[in-house]
Specification:
This protein is mainly alpha-helical. It is 42% helix and 10% strand. It has a three-stranded parallel sheet. A two-stranded antiparallel sheet has the order 2-3. It has a two-stranded parallel sheet with strand order 6-7. Strand 2 and strand 3 form a beta hairpin. Helix 4 packs across helix 5 and helix 7 packs across helix 9. Its main location: membrane. Keywords: Cell membrane, Glycoprotein, Ion channel, Ion transport, Ligand-gated ion channel, Membrane, Receptor, Transmembrane, Transmembrane helix, Transport.
Length: 276
């Protein structure tokens, strides 16, 4: 015979399992709250809400006992638990789970990306590798032209002339020969195209400033955390760390190792936005 009264271990989560006090009764609302109300109506039972003392679903201690909702059920203080109990191998050893009725996708959130600092805006049109290549090409052209293009020019003078050609200045004291003209024309083409591309990209940046790069995937997040650029916090008492650890995906395993080493966590349901 189905019991007339059931004790339900739960935590208060807005929009999922929200507790409302109506008179001397506690009425639940939200997606899982409505499910509980439906079960109570169809199976004709009353329920008593037993809140998790630490506001967590449950983590296992080294001695085998549990805290949170799992601990309440294991100790006999509650008959079953809600809401959104994640099923894991450890929890499956301590509890009997119902058939799954919902699936959750795991994601991460970051603070909205800020604009790139404008103090170094002049460097943004090209990538770092492009700038390095451009500088090396300019130095190589200065050395080469000093030897075979210019007449009686010092290395400094050759460098200044090459640099001037980038900003549309004329080049003087040039030795005349067909193959030298080909070499000079090649450089002048580069000296014309590169500033043109720079101006286009720079104007685009001024019109619509770029945002700082932030992780978009878990692999990018793992790389950012391992490099020390980001911290990654997981909710206390959830299965997030276990899911990462048991994924057998190298970058996820490395990510959770850093999280556990630094004990990065936050209370579920609290204003984690303030931590970003």
């Amino acid at each position: 015979m189905f019991p007339q009264k059931i004790r339900v271990a739960a935590i208060n989560i807005p929009s999922v399992f929200k507790l409302n006090v109506v008179g001397d009764k506690i009425v639940v609302d939200g997606s899982d709250g409505n499910l509980l109300n439906c079960l109570a109506e169809k199976l004709n039972f009353e329920y008593e809400i037993v809140l998790s003392p630490d506001g967590q679903w449950g983590s296992r201690y080294e001695n085998g006992t549990w805290d949170g909702i799992v601990g309440l059920i294991q100790s006999g203080k509650a008959d079953f638990g809600m809401p959104a109990m994640g099923m894991t191998e450890e929890r499956n050893e301590a509890l009997d789970f119902s058939l799954t009725y919902s699936l959750l996708e795991k994601l991460f959130v970051t603070k909205e990306a800020g604009e790139i600092p404008k103090i170094t805006a002049f460097t943004y049109p090209f990538t770092r590798n492009a700038w390095i290549l451009y500088v090396l090409m300019t130095l190589a052209a200065a050395i080469l032209f000093q030897r075979i293009i210019f007449k009686n020019a010092t290395l400094l003078g050759s460098f200044i002339s090459v640099l001037g050609s980038i900003v549309s200045q004329a080049m003087e004291n040039i030795r005349e020969s067909p193959w030298r003209r080909v070499l000079l024309g090649l450089w002048l083409s580069i000296a014309t195209v590169m500033p043109f591309l720079y101006n286009i990209n720079f104007l685009s940046f001024l019109t619509m400033p770029e945002k700082m790069a932030i992780p978009r995937t878990f692999e990018e997040l793992s790389t950012a955390v391992l490099s020390g650029k980001f911290k990654c916090l997981t909710p206390i008492g959830t299965v997030d760390r276990e899911l990462l650890r048991e994924s057998n995906i190298n970058y996820l395993v490395k990510l959770v190792e850093v999280i556990e080493k630094n004990d990065w966590e936050y209370p579920f349901g609290k204003g984690f936005v303030d931590l970003l």
